[in-house]
Amino acid sequence: MSTYFFFVISFLGLLAHVAKAQTISGTIKGLDTGETLSAAIVTIKDLENNTLLYTLSNEGGKYSIELQSLPDASYQLTVSKYGYIEATLVLQIPLTSREIDFELETKILQLDDAIFQARRIPIKQLGDTISFRPEAFADGTERVIEDILKKLPGFDVDPNGTIKFKGREISKLLLEGDDLFNHNYALGSKNISSNIIDEVQAVENYSFNPLLKGVADTDEVAINIKLKKGVSDLSGQADLGVGIANRLDVNANVLLISAIHKNFSNFSFNNVGVNRSPWDYFFISNSKEQREIQGFLSPKLISETSFSGEIENQKAKINQTYQANVNELYKLSKNINARVNFFYFKDQLDMENHSSTHYSFDTGTSLDISADQYIKKNPILFFLDSKITWDIGSNSRLEMDTKWMDEKIHTSNHLLQNYQDRLVSNLNSRRHFLYNDLQYTHKLNASQVLRANLLLSQNSSPQDFVLTPGINIHTGDFTTQHQNHQYANTQRNYTFFLTELLGNHQKDNKYRLAIQTYFRSDHLSSLLQSNYVEDITNHLNLHVWQSSLQADYMWKAQKFSIKPQINLQALKTNLMQQAKETLDRQLYLNSDLKLLYKISDIKHIQAEISHKQQQQQPNNLFINPILTSFRSLHFNDPSLALQKTLLARVGFNHNDLFNQFLFNVHLDWQQRQNTIIYQNHITQSLSNLRAWVLPRSLNQFSATAHVEKFVDILKSSIKANTTISRIKYFNMVNDSDLRENMGNNLLTEFTWRTGFAMPINFQNKVQLNYFQNSSVHAPAFSNTSLQNQFSVNFRYKRAWFALIGYQYFNPDLDMPNAIGFLDAQISYRPLNKSWSIVLEASNLTNHKDFKQIFVSDFYRSEMRQSLNPGFVMLRYSFRF
Question: How far apart are CA 564 and CA 415, in angstroms?
Fold first, then answer.
């Protein structure tokens, strides 16, 4: 109870502080014409003419500037705009008036003949669109769109290509207003040259369907890339990099833009650890496209090896990657558009690692297990994404989305376990996926829209796993002549239908009423064959019918907005397994309440509380064991109990992009019930993992803070991120009772990047990661790692550029394990030329491997992972 009281008092205190803030606002017009003036500069100065605060008027001539940081005194309020006479008045704080309008008189100048270069404003806003001029933030190291976005205020780019703006993940990356890439926008951001970008636009409250604009309540963000003048018809870039030790990096792009057709095509091959696609089979991460289709995919039951670590992907990735994609957008007629995206990906990944794990059990016993592995992973992916849009008159639209995927992955593993058992495993995984989504939208009137949606999908994920020699799953002993053969297949068919009415009521109050129903059919089968035991099989059929009635309403009143959402669901589940049928019917309610208090255009407080329930997945329902790796068996005590989540969230956001200052704080609390917990039984050669549903409530708390600021006196951009999380969870290990555990994590990052008007600049990023896992009946395992990346760049006569980078990594601050990576680059990019040449070197210290530490409540594991060997490469680029 004290925790809740603390949060309530803090929240009220923050509101009280905000209530004291004083804000001046008004409208700026031209005296002669009466027209509103955008981009007028509003400045607060002290009486010695030192600038303290400033802002710009928006497209409607309105401005707003906050004075809460200024002490009581007299100040100058100045309004200026090119071509008009500056207006100044004396301002007394505390304020007597908060609404001050200006009318500027046109300036008439008599000038001799001269040429003037207009200074382009780096950031401007028009309605929901914020525009950035990339040249104001670039330092010359940028090669593709992604490199530019990383340096713009408010933007973040994850290693897998996911782009976020003001902490929200973007929905689309548009090219001259057109959606050429759909959710696979990383194909564009990782490959399109930064040299052709004129402007980056962040579009908030974005809706792809124009019939929904002003009616649907959306908080989606899209990024629109405006190209430089003259970049039309056919353009592109080709890169060829050749290095010692048989290193090769080839990348070619073609961009075609016309009034009725857009095309972006790309081909690349490299063996230097680079990934230019949104699909990554090395690092454990999912792109936006993968997350969008995740719910329609049947789960894979046998584990596929992936890299998980703190070191950057390219340093650890040993690859041979082929990639080709074609993105086409056609305007077939005035009312019909068609988009087709085809993607091909092939890779060979080599991973070599050594792991040693110390287990500590509640009985006072311990166990040490080691494994040396040499892994080859060969994925092949074909992916097709198409969309046809037909505007039927001015009030109706028909859209059809189709996705098709064919994926094959072969993984071989040669390993030595506990320095005595030599094993070989081979895993073949396949995935077939087909998805069709048909949407019809009809605008009933100016404030109401009716939508209907029919979605069908099919997926199968067969896997074939062979382990030689086999392991006796009863005794844990290895045989010398036999093998285990594990076959597993999951299938999912999905049918979904939705009808919804969206409306705008009383200006900005928006509502949504929806009826939806879906049918999901999951089939799971497995067969474990061994010569010394009987075959172990699973046969599972799960049928889920769900119908729901949804309603939400966005109510706005001055600075407050409230959005309640209610979802009444009727669920029928039929589980047939091992000739036994289980039928379950439930009626339940999901609800969500969102609150927003808008302090100003750049500040707001938000809060949310929600209660949701969801079904168990089929990979948590099978009964008999499945061999999921060379030493792991997985089985379940199945339950159809709904997983329940109660979520409470509160946050404060200050996003002042014009002054390049962002400050965001969010607190999250979750209570989960009927979650999956695990009983681990670990021996020298085998780990049995039994999953079951725990009816108890588990709590989780997290706090995140983000600060981003351009410090003018230092000519530097600083960025800091901190996340603190604390989670309670339960498990059982070997012969223990139910164990209550606590996991704590602190992750903090600090980045400093200079922007001096001189030939030398630098950037430094430091990251500290702390883990602690503890159990009531056992000592805690903890670990702290530190990583620091420093780079300095030099520019000479705008054509020569040099970069030196050093990365320090220490996986455990309690032990001397630190290593350092040295990288360098020299490039020559002559002005007004279409070619450039780069000499680059990676991992000059030539470290062969690095160590990482993983901890839980009952073990500490050290893993030594192979690294991409050092190389030197000469790269030639040509633009056309």
Answer: 55
Specify whether the backbone of 553 is left (phi greater than 0), alpha (psi in -120 to 50) or beta: beta
CB atoms within 10 A of CB 740: 16
Rounded to the nearest 10°, the torsion over CA 23, 26, 28, 29 is: -170
Gap between the Cα atoms of 359 and 363, Å rounded: 12
Measure the CA–CA gap between 777 and 364, rounded to whole angstroms: 10
The whole-model pTM stands at 0.83
Q: What is the three-class DSSP state of 135?
A: helix
The DSSP line for 309-374 is -SS-HHHH-B--EEEEEEEEEEE-SSSEEEEEEEEEEE--EEEEEEEEEEEE-TTS-EEEEEEEEE
Predicted confidence band of residue 481 (pLDDT cuts 50, 70, 90):
low
Q: Considering only CA atoms, give the Rg of the chain.
A: 30
Tokens of 371: 């494994």
Here the tokens at position 489 are 């297949």
Count Cα atoms within 13 angstroms, Cβ side, for 610: 18
Decide: residue 245, CB within 10 A, 0-12 exposed, 13-18 middle, 19+ buried.
exposed
Hey, what are 435's tokens? 């998805």
**pLDDT band, very low/low/confident/very high, at 96 (cuts 50, 70, 90):** low
3-state secondary structure of 546: strand
User: Running DSSP on this structure, what letter comes out for residue 246?
Assistant: T
List CB contacts of 275: < 8 A, sequence separation 6 or more.
190, 282, 313, 314, 317, 319, 321
Q: Please state the length of the chain.
A: 880
Q: How far apart are CA 778 and CA 358, in angstroms?
A: 14
CA dist 37 and 776 (Å) reads 66
Distance of CA 759 to the CA centre of its chain: 34
Whole-number pLDDT of residue 10: 43
The mean of the pLDDT values for the chain is 88
Closest CA to 441 of 607, 209, 644, 771: 209
Structure tokens at 293: 């289709």
Phi, psi (rounded to 5 degrees) for 585: -125, 135
